[in-house]
Structures are given as structure tokens and as C-alpha cells.
Amino acid sequence: MTFRVSSTRHRAMLVMAALLAAVLASGCNEAQVASKPRPVQARLSAAVPIPPAPVGTTTIATVRSTAPGSPEPGLAPTTEVPASWYGYPSVLPVVGTAPDWIEVRLAQRPDGSTTWIPSSDVSLSSTPYQLVLSLSTEHLAVFEYGKEILDFPAGVGTPDDPTVTGNYFIAMRVPPPGPGYGPFVLVTSAHSDAISDWDDSGDAIIAIHGPITSYDDQLIGSTGAAISHGCIRLHDADLTQLDDIPAGTPLEITSGTA
Questions:
Q1: Residues 179, 210 within the same domain
Q2: Residues spanned by the domain of 73
Q3: Would you state the torsion angle of the CA atoms of residues 163, 166, 172, 178, taken in this order, to the nearest 10 degrees?
Q4: pTM over 0.85
Q5: For the chain, which has fewer Cβ within 10 Å, the N-terminal or C-terminal residue?
Q6: Distance in Å from the first CA to the final CA of the chain
Q7: End residue of a domain, out of 99, 127, 155
């Protein structure tokens, strides 16, 4: 059975408006922290070696300064990868490597975007975690070193405002914008297909957070429910167990079973 949210849309799950307001209030300005990129060829001499990721982990890249993004290694840049996004560092999963280059997922639209950047522009680390959300079972699974360690019932998007499927990642962890969002919010790189501009924020970003109301908490129960405008709602106690999940952690959203 599909459930609909009983509260008005201003309490919806898509938190971009609140997040953007919080960033602006704190004085963070992406334009202030992003520096002008240098020519690509001048940067390759400082390239860092790319060690193989340990089994069951994902290599993640923290962008040190605004980097030129190219469709293939060595080609002219067609985009820029900012050092920060809404005031938080750009921490991106690495999905490909080549001498002096890495391919990373991007947090901005369109969903699923990737680009190649010089490896000299990033600091590399790794995460042992992966999140997998199954829309059919309405459960979120947590993997560590390739082994499932947690499984939570989740509130997901309704048929009118569905949660998008695809390969994404945790872009940042931010304070809750208000009551009901739980102890923190995990902002993802996924964006709603049904909503392009939420509350005049300029975007509609999908996030993982608390259930908003006690009624929503009841609907999620132990089985999960389709109750949101695209975001992923968890019981507060379950959300708390994601406290160690770092930015850059992969998130797969599938229409099948996890």
C-alpha cells in the first residue's frame, strides 16, 4: 500500500531551501572559496600517485582547488569542479584512473555526471562503506568492506514524487534545518526528477534524514513506506547509526531488491 504525507508540502523531505539558507546565513560563499584554475599542463608535474583501493573500499578525492574537468584524460576542459559545494568541501568518489588523471562523480546536475580531473588537484583517501537503497523493499542497507552490516526500513518517494534510481554518493553532512530531521542530514548527489526548484531554492536535492513527524515515523514502522517527496527518511535511532558515514561514500538507489 502506498502512503501519502499528511502534512503540507512546506514540511517536505527535500531540504535544499533550508540548507541553502543555512549556508548563506553562515556567510559561506562558494565563489569566495573557489580559486581560478591554472592551465592543465602546468598542474600535471605535481601529480600524485594513485594507489589501488583496498578490497571492499572506494577511493574518494577531496578537491583542493577549483579543477578543470575534461571528458577524457588530456582533453581540453569542458567544465569546472568546485573545491566546495554550498560551503562544504567537494569529496567525490573516484570511478576511473589514468596516468596523472582521475575520473570522479559530480554532485551537481545532471544526475550521474562524471568528469576527468588532474590527480594533482586532489587529496585521496578511501571509505569502506556503501549504501544501497531498494525502492521495492523500502529498505536502506549499509555495507562495510563489501559485507552488509545494517538494514533499515526507510521512507521513500511517492509515485508522484519518486526517489530517483542510479549511482550517487553522500556529498556532505549538515546540521538539521529544523525539528524532525533527526540529529543530522546526509545530503546526496541525487536530484529529484519530478521537482526542479523547491521553495525557490534553485534545486531539489535528495537527502537522508529523520521522519519529520511522529505519524511519518509510524508509517515507516519496520517495513518502510512511500511517504516523501523524494528524500529518504529514517527513524532517528537508525539515522544515528550512520554517524560514521563519510562524504564520498557511494549510494546506489535501485528499483529492485538490495
A1: yes
A2: 30-127
A3: 0
A4: no
A5: N
A6: 20
A7: 127
